[in-house]
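Input record (one chain):
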Amino acid sequence: MCKAMSASSTGSPGRGSSPIGETTRRWAMLAGCLLALWGFIFVVGPGLRNLEAFRPLAAFIEEHGIDAGALYYTEVEEVGPSETSIRNSLAYPPSRTGRGK
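The corresponding structure, as predicted from the sequence alone:
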């Protein structure tokens, strides 16, 4: 049997051919990624607030009561009138008739 056939029938060269080993490796990778994400959200992210470069920005956000966690600005009160205006402009576009004549 040639090398190409043996590599394709047993999986990737250099890795175990056991499906249990592959499943375990994938679960370990998922756990590692989730751990890295958790670390960034709860350790690295909050730690950035204490850096000199980010301290003025964090103070400004807190002083002005800005909800930095609002998703897509749907929870920000000032966006309401703008959203209504944009929706009306799209639903009822300005007419070009009567202009310039």
